[in-house]
Each structure stands twice: as structure tokens, then as C-alpha cells.
Design a protein that fits this description.
The chain is of the alpha/beta class. It folds into three domains: 93 residues, Cobalt-precorrin-4 Transmethylase, domain 1; 84 residues, Rossmann fold (3-Layer(aba) Sandwich); 110 residues, 4-hydroxy-3-methylbut-2-enyl diphosphate reductase, catalytic domain (Cobalt-precorrin-4 Transmethylase, domain 1), CATH 3.40.1010.20. The protein has twelve helices and twelve strands. Strands 1-12-10-11 form a four-stranded parallel β-sheet, sandwiched between helices. A four-stranded parallel β-sheet has the order 3-2-4-5, with helices on both faces. Strands 7-6-8-9 form a four-stranded parallel β-sheet. Helix 5 runs parallel beside helix 6 and helix 10 packs across helix 11. The structure holds iron/sulfur cluster. Iron/sulfur cluster binds next to helix 1, helix 5 and helix 9. The site of iron/sulfur cluster (SF4) has 14 residues, from helix 1, helix 5 and helix 9.
Length: 295
């Protein structure tokens, strides 16, 4: 059996930067709080916990004083910064620059269109930390659509007013094709309602590190007889990308750890490709590759 790791896989810049900053503080202090999991990957979180990282929730943050807390790459709403400030908490702000820019863009657009009765729509997952951070920029005044199919019901029950300005954004890790489909459907609906689409702005804010993985992974999955996709069970980006691999290579196995691999999945003639989500570090891919090579 031959084994190859996808050269484009590994943590994205935002997650890698947060992990590196956490490790830097941990090497000096031996302990650090992180507000939420730095990465949706239990194996990597276990490694960081062994170095002294403790994950806390929002209720814990309210009760902490005079300490240091890391804010992860997903970003936080202004209310959370205010809690930290009020409690004299030093923030190690690892908000990804791409997310930070998106937060500012949403806030500026809202400022521009809300006096005209305009509306912000975000294609994203309700309750996801990044989405909470985004809607926090506009005091919660945004409609979140999780799926393309939700558009029509949002229009028919008047949660979307097609006659007013609309700005459509995306969570950075959503599926690019679905976002494009949503934008086109919304444009068609606006044209039908108003006769022109000048009041609709569609901002493709999917991170390039995510969108470029889609065509790369399709080629990688097609070029191997079987795929092992390594990601945490909680990773939304991982779910999207592993489904993408499975759509072109039915022999795609999604695992979090090499001990979930059944050796009988593979034969001696297989050429197995190993890839992962934006939250899967390279060392985990290498661990899986070494495991397979030693079967
Ligand atoms: S996926 Fe992109 S936007 Fe999200 S943390 Fe990674 S680099 Fe930043």
C-alpha cells in the first residue's frame, strides 16, 4: 500500500497562529485560559491541555478577575471584550485577521444601510462562535441562514424584506458553491420583487484558505484509491470537506484518530490519500500516515 499526505492540508493560518501564541505563553507561564476550544479537534486540544491550557466558558469569564485569557481565531462580540475589560482580564487576542476584517465590514455596512431599513443576512451556522462574533457587531440585528433551502421560508414569512437594501455575507468556512447558489436565488427574488437588484450587495466572505481547499481536495480525492479524512467530530469545516471528498471518492473514511482506522479497509494495491480540515494539524496527518505505513 502506498500513502500520501495532501500537501495543502494542515491548520489554516488563523488556527495555527492561535495555537502558536498559546504555546508561547504556556512555555513561559505553564498555564493559560482559553475562551472556548482553540481548535475543534479533541486530539490537538488534549496536547495543549497537557501543556497547561484550560478551556473556559462565558459564565467562567464573568467570574474571573485579574488574569490572562486567550480569545481564539473565531473572534468574539464586543460584549465579551467589555466583560474582560470590566474584570481586569488581559486578553491575548488571537482573532484571525480575516475574521476581524469581516467583523468590521459587517459593522460598516450595517451602519450604512440600517437608516434605510436595510438588513444584514449571514450565511452561517446559528450559535457558532464566529457567527456570534459577527452578529455581535450589529447588536444581533442580522438574519442567519444555515441552509440555502431556508431562503424561501424567510422571504415568505417576511423575515426578509426584498424591497429594502440587503447585504449578504458568509461565515468564513461555509461551502462556496452553496453560498453562490444562495446569492443567485436571493438576486432572482429581489429582481422579481423590485425590477432591479441595485439594493442587493452580495459579499463573498468565505476565507480563501477554505475556498481554495475545495478544488484541491477534489483533485486529491480523485487521485487516490481511498481517502482518510482526519478531523475533529465538532469541526463544521471538517464535515463539509470530508463530504466533498466522499462525493468524488466513495472510499472516504473520516476519523479523528488513527485508532479508529480498520486495517481491513485497505488492500496491498491501494494508494491512500490523507487529508484534513483547517483545524487538523500536520502532525496528526503524519501520525496517521506512519500508522498506515506500519500496517
Ligand atoms: S479558516 Fe480562514 S478565516 Fe477562519 S481562522 Fe482560518 S485563516 Fe482565519
Amino acid at each position: 500500500m502506498r500513502v500520501e499526505i495532501d500537501e495543502h492540508s494542515g491548520c489554516c493560518n488563523g488556527v495555527r497562529r492561535a495555537i502558536e501564541q498559546a504555546e508561547q505563553v504556556l512555555s513561559q507561564n505553564g498555564a493559560l485560559y482559553s475562551l472556548g476550544a482553540i481548535v475543534h479537534n479533541e486530539t490537538e486540544m488534549d496536547r495543549l491541555r497537557h501543556k497547561g491550557l484550560s478551556t473556559i466558558g462565558y459564565e467562567d469569564l464573568k467570574n474571573l478577575q485579574d488574569t490572562v485569557v486567550l480569545f481564539r481565531a473565531h473572534g468574539e462580540p464586543p460584549a465579551v471584550y467589555n466583560i474582560a475589560k470590566g474584570n481586569n482580564i488581559e486578553i491575548i487576542d488571537c482573532t484571525c485577521p480575516v475574521v476581524l476584517q469581516l467583523q468590521k465590514r459587517i459593522a460598516a455596512t450595517y451602519h450604512e444601510i440600517s437608516p434605510k431599513g436595510g438588513q444584514i443576512i449571514i450565511f452561517g451556522k446559528n450559535g457558532h462562535a464566529e457567527v456570534n462574533g459577527l452578529i455581535g457587531q450589529v447588536q444581533g440585528n442580522a438574519l442567519v441562514l444555515e441552509k440555502v433551502e431556508q431562503l424561501h421560508s424567510a422571504i415568505s414569512d417576511r423575515r426578509i424584506d426584498l424591497t429594502k437594501p440587503i447585504a449578504l455575507f458568509s461565515q468564513t468556512t461555509k461551502d462556496p458553491q452553496q453560498f453562490q447558489q444562495l446569492g443567485e436565488l436571493l438576486r432572482t427574488a429581489v429582481l422579481e420583487a423590485c425590477g432591479d437588484d441595485s439594493q442587493l450587495s452580495v459579499f463573498n466572505t468565505i476565507c480563501r484558505q477554505v475556498s481554495s481547499r475545495h478544488p484541491n481536495l477534489i483533485e486529491f480525492a480523485k487521485g487516490h484509491t481511498a481517502i482518510i479524512f482526519v478531523c475533529g467530530k465538532e469541526s463544521s469545516n471538517g464535515k463539509i470537506l470530508s463530504q466533498l471528498c466522499a462525493s468524488v471518492n466513495p472510499r472516504t473514511y473520516s476519523v479523528e484518530h488513527h485508532n479508529e482506522i480498520n486495517p481491513q479497509w485497505f488492500g496491498p494495491d491501494d494508494f491512500v490519500g490523507i487529508c484534513g480540515a483547517t483545524s487538523t494539524p500536520k502532525w496528526q496527518l503524519e501520525e496517521v500516515a506512519n500508522y498506515l505505513k506500519n500496517l
